[in-house]
């Protein structure tokens, strides 16, 4: 089945970026509407889904076989170049042009714009003359072709170099040919139930076998060419040391490459007498002079071609691994030249002689037309591409700033106040500059302010107003420093702040300015952002007071740049403050009982936008219910006024209100429209009463908005502002967070509506509910988070690790660069090992280099940190930030009391701190000092940024989910297929949202009877998740489970087992066995092992799944019944009929409770019980007969029927939430948390961790 009507090879990605802006040489050869054909094929010109033609071209390249290519008429010829760079026979060529009928084609010309273009035309690849830029591009491309398919690939992928990232899935060799008699691989001991071993070695695949095409390739010391040689066409000189130990001197000229007669001592640029041929490609030349190169090159290119295209493409954002192997480093002159020049910004060869104007690019793409869907696709693609490049540049600049490789623009000031300019990006450090945050928390407030500012940028960018501009922004944490990277407003560095700001305040609210242009723009944003416009009093230079209307917080500043664009910045107070951490407001008794208001290290605590939306929606629904109640009362009274005196003083309780559906129906019938309400006095009175009951700011209509400055002590509001009512709304919102949102979130987690796997997933889910991370302690105090709950493990771990992050961050700021590795190793030993004392003098015998060893020169306080002192600091920080006290003496006591794994803590700590460890097993439970200095390979930046998305694609995705929930699977499939097409047009082939969409598409394809297509799509979704999220990310685990399911459905039994083993291993590493998702994995494993007649191992996993399900509160649900039934089958096949009867009785009891005695499932279980009873009786008779007559052969168990694959697959469907079994509505409530969808429809996977199908981001 093709996606979007385009023919694409099955083994290639279905769609990638259509006409992306500037793709690298390793980009994909399969775009939307492009299909490479190895041989002649009958490809007819067709119409695409949007009415565009498809053309077939024959491509003829030098020294290569012709091939056919299919292009969409809206594509550019640049796509042909990308295909050539990806094909085995032409991938080494970079300097060429395309010719059609003897005419040179512009790469960035759309096919439909070329006159007389015909289906079946021939495109000729013509070799072009070289320039110095093209030579450097060619050499870099050669290095990427060779070395990134060799020994250094794993290390460079682990460090996210040039968009690379690790994968593990291809190493499993899943889809080998199915052969008869193949042995089933049983799980290794370390992933079997009950195992305490947690090895780290299997986390990443072993590096590929080294293949060296040459010993070294570098630029010659004879560079640059002298004047006479330049006039003869010389561009660059290259030295190559071949594997045959021969040193070859090569001249790169305008015509190509040739071997010159130079030696190490003498420069002779003339062609060598032994080989005078000029080759247009360096690969062709090296193949001619070195047999070893020719053999290695062929093997490396085959290795490259054998990779899935998704393995080779760059990710849009860096994905660095916390765990990496260290290759044996070899000489590489090109690597040395490029990476040891900190002044290079990475774009010299693409944009010679100039820097990118990031602000201009970001704002130009932001202003692009968006009237048609095609225009919106082009705009979204441009915005995404520029933003992705900006983030990459910001990361490189931030690391250079912290490493001291960028000169400050204010070097005479305090180092904490230094600011930097690099690659036209402005960098500042997250410290309190000039005491700006002195009264609200100092450096802690400064760090929080950058994160809040980024949230404000996201919020205003989402409004998508082309006239309201925000800065490009990224927040980077690296080596303990927080660096803010921002694009530069034109002219802002040339003016004083007072001259630049035309809206807002620059003196903490004492004086406020405004302009008509900003009032007009910002007045259109307040309704969507739920911000209340408010009047404040300001004074001019003469002390004269006047009022100014603000549509934002007073901190927000409006600046008109030299480009005449209107910018808003300093958006840290966009959202209203969190009153639960403020001393001024008077909170309710319920909130006070919870320990609020509570002190916090800073006063920049704000509510999240998700909470503002949820609170407003909840108040609006209550408004509707109250209005419906008054409408009902009006029907039973002669006049509305008769009840006024009685109702006004009486508070409305929840049990008096009608249900939501009933209220909506009543109000819709009584007040069908605003016009009808305005014409009816009774309707107006009903609305006014309902508004008053819900605390509306307006006495006449529903109006819930927030004044972000209503608690600001330095802002003087106008007398017309009702501050009491405005503050009451904020107090109610804080109470709503504690009383409604947090309990609701805990209920969802405990009922497995959502199941976070690690701290990252937990925080994302909390944010989606509008709960800030500072409420982690409140979650852990909830009584429903009991001692055996998986949620307790995750929350407690996250509190400890985030507290430790604050401590390490402060320590690393005082550590010199040469002590970073030892300091990190020491702190890891102090946390996960046992550091009881510090040796004050160097040990005489230095047998080992432990991070907690003797002092070194230049050490700071990190060397004095013992395990006891570190745990004390963690407890203090946890109480200060999260309001939770660990009443335990040591960290080991905490690990044991809360059931936390050390390996899980190590993984999560490395990911939040940006620590990269050497790939090996650390004896965390056995050694007091498990880490040495050499185990710390690197520290990498952790970044946050504004994440643009494909709007139309997201809307289609949401619509597909709605269609799925209503059982219209074909319509849902069409919507999500089109969403995938649009996403690939915007994002390219790799993006986490695209992976989620492909997963849904795979599930729908499976439901529609296309298991082969489902397997192909799910394989791509899994590979995308590995590349974009990480090989051990929670979503990757879920993708493995789905892929195993579809592999089994296609009879790839061995592949299904490998995938489930991998999923179980990852979950053990990330969390441990006590997790609801582990029950699903064990159920799948037990079922598949039962299908292949490995009954003993099947019983082991099924028993573990049943124990976990019971512990997690699922003992009376449908999945528990299925597990019990599979256990009964497995026990019966083993001849253990007593255990089989016990298990089947549990199944029957659950079915009887859920469905009733007459349901088909219940009757089948009853028949199975009868059969097992007969089998048990027969087997008992045999035992007696054998005992009497000594007939040993009768003791053999009865032959059980072999497992039937359709029946096994049906169980897997139910376990994985793919197909939901129907049952009477009267019994639906008993199993509501487990079955949440209609019959025969795809259900949102209740085991999905941080992903919710309702939200792509």
From TrEMBL:
<dbReference type="GO" id="GO:0005737">
    <property type="term" value="C:cytoplasm"/>
</dbReference>
<dbReference type="GO" id="GO:0007005">
    <property type="term" value="P:mitochondrion organization"/>
</dbReference>
<comment type="similarity">
    <text>Belongs to the CLU family.</text>
</comment>
<dbReference type="GO" id="GO:0003729">
    <property type="term" value="F:mRNA binding"/>
</dbReference>
<dbReference type="InterPro" id="IPR023231">
    <property type="entry name" value="GSKIP_dom_sf"/>
</dbReference>
<dbReference type="GO" id="GO:0048312">
    <property type="term" value="P:intracellular distribution of mitochondria"/>
</dbReference>
<feature type="region of interest" description="Disordered">
    <location>
        <begin position="1232"/>
        <end position="1257"/>
    </location>
</feature>
<comment type="function">
    <text>mRNA-binding protein involved in proper cytoplasmic distribution of mitochondria.</text>
</comment>
<dbReference type="Pfam" id="PF12807">
    <property type="entry name" value="eIF3_p135"/>
</dbReference>
<feature type="compositionally biased region" description="Polar residues">
    <location>
        <begin position="1236"/>
        <end position="1249"/>
    </location>
</feature>
<dbReference type="InterPro" id="IPR027523">
    <property type="entry name" value="CLU_prot"/>
</dbReference>
<dbReference type="Pfam" id="PF13236">
    <property type="entry name" value="CLU"/>
</dbReference>
<protein>
    <recommendedName>
        <fullName>Clustered mitochondria protein homolog</fullName>
    </recommendedName>
</protein>
<keyword id="KW-0963">Cytoplasm</keyword>
<dbReference type="Pfam" id="PF13374">
    <property type="entry name" value="TPR_10"/>
</dbReference>
<dbReference type="InterPro" id="IPR028275">
    <property type="entry name" value="CLU_N"/>
</dbReference>
<dbReference type="Pfam" id="PF05303">
    <property type="entry name" value="GSKIP_dom"/>
</dbReference>
<dbReference type="InterPro" id="IPR033646">
    <property type="entry name" value="CLU-central"/>
</dbReference>
<keyword id="KW-0694">RNA-binding</keyword>
<feature type="domain" description="Clu">
    <location>
        <begin position="335"/>
        <end position="582"/>
    </location>
</feature>
<dbReference type="Pfam" id="PF15044">
    <property type="entry name" value="CLU_N"/>
</dbReference>
<dbReference type="InterPro" id="IPR007967">
    <property type="entry name" value="GSKIP_dom"/>
</dbReference>
<dbReference type="InterPro" id="IPR025697">
    <property type="entry name" value="CLU_dom"/>
</dbReference>
<dbReference type="InterPro" id="IPR011990">
    <property type="entry name" value="TPR-like_helical_dom_sf"/>
</dbReference>
């Amino acid at each position: 089945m093709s996606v979007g009507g385009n023919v694409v090879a099955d083994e290639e990605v279905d769609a990638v970026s259509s006409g992306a802006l500037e793709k690298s040489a390793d980009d994909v050869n399969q775009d939307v509407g492009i299909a490479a054909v190895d041989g002649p094929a009958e490809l007819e010109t067709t119409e695409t889904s949007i009415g565009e033609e498809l053309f077939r071209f024959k491509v003829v390249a030098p020294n290569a076989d012709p091939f056919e290519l299919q292009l969409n008429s809206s594509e550019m010829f640049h796509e042909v170049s990308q295909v050539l760079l990806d094909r085995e026979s032409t991938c080494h060529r970079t300097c060429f042009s395309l010719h059609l009928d003897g005419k040179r084609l512009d790469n960035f010309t759309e096919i439909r714009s070329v006159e007389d273009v015909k289906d079946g035309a021939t495109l000729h690849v013509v070799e072009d003359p070289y320039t110095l830029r093209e030579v450097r591009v060619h050499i870099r491309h050669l290095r990427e072709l060779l070395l990134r398919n060799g020994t250094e690939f794993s290390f460079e992928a682990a460090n996210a170099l040039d968009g690379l990232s690790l994968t593990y899935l291809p190493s499993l060799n899943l889809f080998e040919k199915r052969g008869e008699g193949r042995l089933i691989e049983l799980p290794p001991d370390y992933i079997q139930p009950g195992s305490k071993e947690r090895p780290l070695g299997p986390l990443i695949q072993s590096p590929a076998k080294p293949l060296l095409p040459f010993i070294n390739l570098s630029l010659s010391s004879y560079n640059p060419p002298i004047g006479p040689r330049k006039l003869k066409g010389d561009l660059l000189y290259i030295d190559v040391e071949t594997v045959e130990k021969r040193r070859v001197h090569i001249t790169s000229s305008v015509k190509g490459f040739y071997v010159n007669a130079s030696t190490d001592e003498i420069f002779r640029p003339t062609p060598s007498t032994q080989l005078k041929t000029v080759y247009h490609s360096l690969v062709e030349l090296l193949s001619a002079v070195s047999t070893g190169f020719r053999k290695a090159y062929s093997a490396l290119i085959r290795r490259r071609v054998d990779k899935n295209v998704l393995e080779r493409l760059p990710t849009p954002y860096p994905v660095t691994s916390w765990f990496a192997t260290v290759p044996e480093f070899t000489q590489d002159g090109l690597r040395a030249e490029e990476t040891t020049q900190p002044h290079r910004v990475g774009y010299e060869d693409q944009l010679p002689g100039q820097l990118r104007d990031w602000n201009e690019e970001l704002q130009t793409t932001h202003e692009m037309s968006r009237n048609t869907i095609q225009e919106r696709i082009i705009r979204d693609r441009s915005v995404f591409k520029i933003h992705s490049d900006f983030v990459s540049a910001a990361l490189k600049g931030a690391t250079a700033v912290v490493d001291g490789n960028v000169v400050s623009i204010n070097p005479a000031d305090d180092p904490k106040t230094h600011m930097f300019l690099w690659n036209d990006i402005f960098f500042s450090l997250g410290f309190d500059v000039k005491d700006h945050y002195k009264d609200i928390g100092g450096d802690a407030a400064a760090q929080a302010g950058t994160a809040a500012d980024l949230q404000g940028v996201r919020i205003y960018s989402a409004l998508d107003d082309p006239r309201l501009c925000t800065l490009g922004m990224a927040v980077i944490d690296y080596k303990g420093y927080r660096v803010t990277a921002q694009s530069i407003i034109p002219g802002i560095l040339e003016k004083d702040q007072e001259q630049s700001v035309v809206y807002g305040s620059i003196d903490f609210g004492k004086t406020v300015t405004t302009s008509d242009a900003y009032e007009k723009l910002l007045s259109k944003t307040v309704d969507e952002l739920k911000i209340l416009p408010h009047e404040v009093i300001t004074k001019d230079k003469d002390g004269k007071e006047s009022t100014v209307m603000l549509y934002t917080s007073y901190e927000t500043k409006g600046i008109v740049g030299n480009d005449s664009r209107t910018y808003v910045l300093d958006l840290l107070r966009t959202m209203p403050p969190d009153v639960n951490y403020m001393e001024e407001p008077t909170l309710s008794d319920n909130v006070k009982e919870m320990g609020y208001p509570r002190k916090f290290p800073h006063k920049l605590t704000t509510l999240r936008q998700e909470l503002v939306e949820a609170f407003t929606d909840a108040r609006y629904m209550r408004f509707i219910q109250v209005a419906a109640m008054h409408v009902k009362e009006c029907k039973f009274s002669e006049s509305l006024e008769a009840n006024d005196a009685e109702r006004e003083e009486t508070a409305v309780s929840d049990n008096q209100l009608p249900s939501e559906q009933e209220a909506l129906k009543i109000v819709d019938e009584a007040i069908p429209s605003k016009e009808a309400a305005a014409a009816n006095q009774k309707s107006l009175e009903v609305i006014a009463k309902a508004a008053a009951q819900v605390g509306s700011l307006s006495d006449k209509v529903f109006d819930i908005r927030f004044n972000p400055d209503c608690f600001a002590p330095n802002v003087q509001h106008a007398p017309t502002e009702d501050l009491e009512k405005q503050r009451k709304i904020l107090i109610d919102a804080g109470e709503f967070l504690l009383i409604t949102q947090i309990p609701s979130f805990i209920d969802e987690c405990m009922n497995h509506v959502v199941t976070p796997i690690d701290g990252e997933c937990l925080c994302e889910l909390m944010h989606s509910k509008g709960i800030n991370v500072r409420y982690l302690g409140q979650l852990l105090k909830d009584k429903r988070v009991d001692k055996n709950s998986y949620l307790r493990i995750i929350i407690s771990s996250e509190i400890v690790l985030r507290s430790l992050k604050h401590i390490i961050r402060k320590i690393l700021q005082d550590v010199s660069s040469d002590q970073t590795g030892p300091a990190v190793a020491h702190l890891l030993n102090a946390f996960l090992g046992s550091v009881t004392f510090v040796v004050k003098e160097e040990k005489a015998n230095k047998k080992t280099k432990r991070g907690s060893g003797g002092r070194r020169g230049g050490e700071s306080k990190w060397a004095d940190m013992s395990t006891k002192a570190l745990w004390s600091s963690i407890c203090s920080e946890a109480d200060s930030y999260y309001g939770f006290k660990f009443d335990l003496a040591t960290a080991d006591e905490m690990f044991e009391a809360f059931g936390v794994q050390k390996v899980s803590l190590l993984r999560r700590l490395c990911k939040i701190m940006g620590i990269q460890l050497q790939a090996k097993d650390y004896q965390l439970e056995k050694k007091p000092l498990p880490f040495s200095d050499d185990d710390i390979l690197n520290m990498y930046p952790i970044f946050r940024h504004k994440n643009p998305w494909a709007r139309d694609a997201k809307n289609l995705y949401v619509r597909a989910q709605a269609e799925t929930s209503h059982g219209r699977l074909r319509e849902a499939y069409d919507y999500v297929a089109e969403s995938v097409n649009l996403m690939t047009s915007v994002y390219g082939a790799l993006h986490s949202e695209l992976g989620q969409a492909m997963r849904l598409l795979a599930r729908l394809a499976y439901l529609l009877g296309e298991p082969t297509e489902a397997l192909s799509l799910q394989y791509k979704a899994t590979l995308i998740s590995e590349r974009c999220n990480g090989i051990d990310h929670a979503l990757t685990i879920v993708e493995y489970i789905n892929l195993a399911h579809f592999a089994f459905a296609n009879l790839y039994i061995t592949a299904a087992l490998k995938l489930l083993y991998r999923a179980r291993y990852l979950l053990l590493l990330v969390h441990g066995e006590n997790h609801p998702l582990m029950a699903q994995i064990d159920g799948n494993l037990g079922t598949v092992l039962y299908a292949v007649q490995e009954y003993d191992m099947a019983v082991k996993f099924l028993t573990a799944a049943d124990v976990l399900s019971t512990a997690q509160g699922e003992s009376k649900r449908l999945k528990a019944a299925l597990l019990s039934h599979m256990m009964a089958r497995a026990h019966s096949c083993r001849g253990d009929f007593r255990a089989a009867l016990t298990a089947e009785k549990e199944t029957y009891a659950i079915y009887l409770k859920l469905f009733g005695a007459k349901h088909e499932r219940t009757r089948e279980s009853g028949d199975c019980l009868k059969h097992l009873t007969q089998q048990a009786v027969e087997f008992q008779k045999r035992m007696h007969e054998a005992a009497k007559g000594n007939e040993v052969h009768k003791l053999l168990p009865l032959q059980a029927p072999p497992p039937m694959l359709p029946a096994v697959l049906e169980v897997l469907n139910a376990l994985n939430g793919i197909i939901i079994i129907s049952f009477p509505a009267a019994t639906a409530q008993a199993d509501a948390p487990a079955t949440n969808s209609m019959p025969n429809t795809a259900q949102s996977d209740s085991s999905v961790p941080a992903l919710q199908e309702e939200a792509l981001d």
